[in-house]
Amino acid sequence: MELRTHRHKAGAIVAAIAGIALGLAVDNSFDRAGASVDPGTGDVVGEFTYGVTPARLLDTRPGTYTVDNQYVGTGALSDMTPMTVQVAGRGGVPLDATSVLLNVTAVQPAAEGFVSVWPSGPFPGTSNLNFRAGDVVPNMVFTPLANGSITVMASSGRPHVLIDVAAYSSDQPAAA
Predict the structure, then answer these.
(1) How many beta carbons lie within 10 A of that of residue 7, not counting itself?
(2) How far is it, in rounded angstroms, from Cα 134 to Cα 122?
């Protein structure tokens, strides 16, 4: 594994994607939940994770884009106000996906705070990335989906948020 440190100019927006391949196979998938072969049928059963070409699913900044022009320019996240983002069926994530690997970035918040991402329901009381005023902070988030969606929320600081998808999990093997 290689670790690199980078220095960037003030005001630069930097998205970091880092990952560790665990048992990465030729088909760009890895077993996440103990897939096995059914001895009776020879079928592979379990849950698998598949990489996708990175695709932007959310960009709250004006004048930007996403893979399908949904969830664009919605404005900085209001403090403690959850936002639901449809993930399945977008950016190479199939409708039967059960979880996703995301790169979540907070951009230029007005004050310190955090961003949290979770499937649905009440706020779980955790953060996925922390920021200070004016920061641009990315972090990888692996989260289950709820009805194909995720919930994202900022605690304070009204940051703009970008979400890119890098991989998804499914209990269905990839089509040959």
Answers:
(1) 5
(2) 28
